[in-house]
Amino acid sequence: MTEPLALALTKGRILADTLPLFESAGIVPLEDASTTRKLQVGTSQAGTSILLVRASDVPAYVEYGGADVGVTGKDVLLEHTGSGLYEPVDLGIGRCKLVLAGKPGAEKVGHRRLRVATKYPAVTADYFARRGQQVEIIKLYGSMELAPLVGMADVIVDITETGSTLRANGLVVIEEITDISSRLIVNKASMKMKHETIHALIDSIKSALPEKST
Length: 214
Ligand code: PRP
Hints:
By secondary structure, this protein is an alpha/beta fold. The protein has 8 helices and 11 strands. The chain has 2 domains: 6-94 and 181-213, 3-Layer(aba) Sandwich (D-Maltodextrin-Binding Protein, domain 2); 96-179, D-Maltodextrin-Binding Protein, domain 2 (3-Layer(aba) Sandwich).
């Protein structure tokens, strides 16, 4: 028996790559998820719905049971401190890198603390702690590249895909921190209670992935 599922997805760059993976499991939205103003969209599978949430909220929806399954970036998951999630599949889509970037030579600030602007304060704190370097972290919610330009920060920790935003703002990659891609995540209780349905979904998605990302 197929149990109804709630799927937390995000409008934006990766939705077009994500929907075909769910289609492979017979889950097709009943309206255009990329343009609708609805936040909950029905699907071809009775009772199964797509919840359209912010990327950074996907882990909370899945951890607290608002959704059974979600898709979000590894960057968001690294920043998320909860533990009520399984992360069974690297979808291999939305590939980008988390980097330390700044104007050339921006890291050399003498004896004062380096100022780092980021929307990933936990990942950034961990990265510099591993380097044994004390820094000042400024939490921003977007357009991090602006912070070094106006002298508010020396460097940024952000994701880069094509590199064009960094280039357009005269910034360079100082160090690559980690590779990022989108992940399928599953609520721990749902994994037990809806075991068969979720495993069938995982299997369908895995077989729909290009070989190198499974
Ligand atoms: C992300 C990221 C960079 C940009 C990098 O921002 O924060 O600004 O994409 O992509 P690129 O290397 O291909 O230029 P996003 O567009 O998601 O918006 P945000 O600033 O609101 O997070």
